[in-house]
Amino acid sequence: YLLPLTRSHDWIFSVTGGTGYGNGYDNQEGLPFFVNYYAGGLAQGQVLGFDSASLGPRDSNGRPIGGNFLVYGNVSLIFPNYITD
What we know:
Elements (H helix, E strand, L loop, with lengths): L1 E3 L7 E10 L47 E10 L7
Antiparallel strand pairs: 1-2, 2-3
């Protein structure tokens, strides 16, 4: 959701978010690793300031394994850069 705060649209309030849930097929537990949800970075489950797939469960070697449930949200204020060279 984007909400302009001024008539010139210089200042904008932004809200984004999402959820996801997945479950196994035919009485199998969980999802295959390539279908799991991963949080962090600039992809689905985006959390600004974190590397891709850097949030969530990890295996014994420290690699992200993802999960079957994802909730994320961001609130932003977009404004012009008043600093000039």
